[in-house]
Amino acid sequence: MKLRSMIWKELWQRPTPMLTSLLAVTLGVTAMVAIQNITVFSEQKIAGDMESLGANVLVLPPAVTLQDYYSADMHGHTMPEEYVSRLALARMPGVENLAPKLCVESNVDSIPVTVTGILPQSEFQAKAAWQGLGLISPVGSDRGCCATKANVDAGADDPNSLATTRTVQELDDRDVILGHDLAAQLGAKAGDELAVLGEDFSVLTVLPATGTIDDSRMFAHLHSVQDLSGAGPVVNVIEIMACCEDAAGSLITNLSAELPDTRIITIAQVVETQVAVNGLMSRLSWVFLSILLLVGGASIASVMYANVTERRKEIGTLMALGASRSFVTRMFLGKATLLGLAGGLGGFVVGTIVATVLGPQLLGISVQPMPHLLAVGMVAATVVAVAASFLPARRAAGLDPCLVFNDA
């Protein structure tokens, strides 16, 4: 009988003892693959959000725990809109733009939507008290600010600029701007009428896809959202587009002094924290893999030793019929190799599915399969399975057929 046939026959006839071992190996690879997938694509999302996010400083209510800087206004806490006026009147060096926002939940055609109230830049410019404050840098400014999407083409009349600069120049009190995904869900386009917060609004434009949470939002005039929702003159967050050197320097101190009852967050701080969390998750994935593979290896070794003990007579008969010691060793190691390959493959498939499902739901990130993790998982699982089976295989190969039959 060929070696391959004997291995498959052994696995087919005695599947139960190996299931526990296979499960432990599979779980180890699953944990590694799932966490690595989420970590890698979370880092990519951070990079993409940083590229598309104009604001680099956030002013938040003091009770807010920041979970996702790109949806920092989705926390339910509010602060007075008057804080925006105070910041504007403070004439702080480095403040390129202010973008107060208020988010409320509503329904459009029985579909739940997040309505985000925004204040168009024309509102700032229309107030005499705010004239000449430099909230929008003039073209050709030599203030030394780094070029960001927050100040490139600031003041453009295109409402689609909201997708890149996080601000819009003009927005009537009964106009709404739809994110790409929400527009598709509602089947709405520019010029359509939608009933929002009990009033009819006209769709001004549909934003291009950004790959961020804004794709599923609806934007309306801040004061309309405040009035119709009954929230009053409050906001959830004030986004500040600041010069890079000022955001890293004295601006934070000045903001904290001006608004001591708020929490001031820089995007750099948030990203550093998120990167640290991602690094911890990545290291934990390898710890989980190591622990579960050790458990699986110990289980495989135990099962293999028990298998050798139970099959002493069969092994002795096989050797008496001419099977060499290397043949017996390869038979046990071949079975272990198949278990490792199966555990690695199964762990990769399950881990990828888990990451693909949980990534969008828990973290709002899109996860795609990472083929190189298949090789990593299969190699790790196979090495552990073979190593755990090596001593039992050598023990089986060292049996003396004569002694085996005498013991019987």
From TrEMBL:
<dbReference type="GO" id="GO:0005886">
    <property type="term" value="C:plasma membrane"/>
</dbReference>
<feature type="domain" description="ABC3 transporter permease C-terminal">
    <location>
        <begin position="287"/>
        <end position="401"/>
    </location>
</feature>
<feature type="domain" description="MacB-like periplasmic core">
    <location>
        <begin position="20"/>
        <end position="236"/>
    </location>
</feature>
<feature type="transmembrane region" description="Helical">
    <location>
        <begin position="284"/>
        <end position="306"/>
    </location>
</feature>
<protein>
    <submittedName>
        <fullName>Macrolide export ATP-binding/permease protein MacB</fullName>
        <ecNumber>3.6.3.-</ecNumber>
    </submittedName>
</protein>
<keyword id="KW-1133">Transmembrane helix</keyword>
<keyword id="KW-0812">Transmembrane</keyword>
<dbReference type="GO" id="GO:0005524">
    <property type="term" value="F:ATP binding"/>
</dbReference>
<dbReference type="InterPro" id="IPR003838">
    <property type="entry name" value="ABC3_permease_C"/>
</dbReference>
<keyword id="KW-0378">Hydrolase</keyword>
<dbReference type="GO" id="GO:0022857">
    <property type="term" value="F:transmembrane transporter activity"/>
</dbReference>
<dbReference type="Pfam" id="PF02687">
    <property type="entry name" value="FtsX"/>
</dbReference>
<comment type="similarity">
    <text>Belongs to the ABC-4 integral membrane protein family.</text>
</comment>
<feature type="transmembrane region" description="Helical">
    <location>
        <begin position="336"/>
        <end position="358"/>
    </location>
</feature>
<keyword id="KW-0547">Nucleotide-binding</keyword>
<keyword id="KW-0067">ATP-binding</keyword>
<keyword id="KW-1003">Cell membrane</keyword>
<dbReference type="InterPro" id="IPR050250">
    <property type="entry name" value="Macrolide_Exporter_MacB"/>
</dbReference>
<feature type="transmembrane region" description="Helical">
    <location>
        <begin position="370"/>
        <end position="391"/>
    </location>
</feature>
<dbReference type="Pfam" id="PF12704">
    <property type="entry name" value="MacB_PCD"/>
</dbReference>
<dbReference type="GO" id="GO:0016787">
    <property type="term" value="F:hydrolase activity"/>
</dbReference>
<keyword id="KW-0472">Membrane</keyword>
<dbReference type="InterPro" id="IPR025857">
    <property type="entry name" value="MacB_PCD"/>
</dbReference>
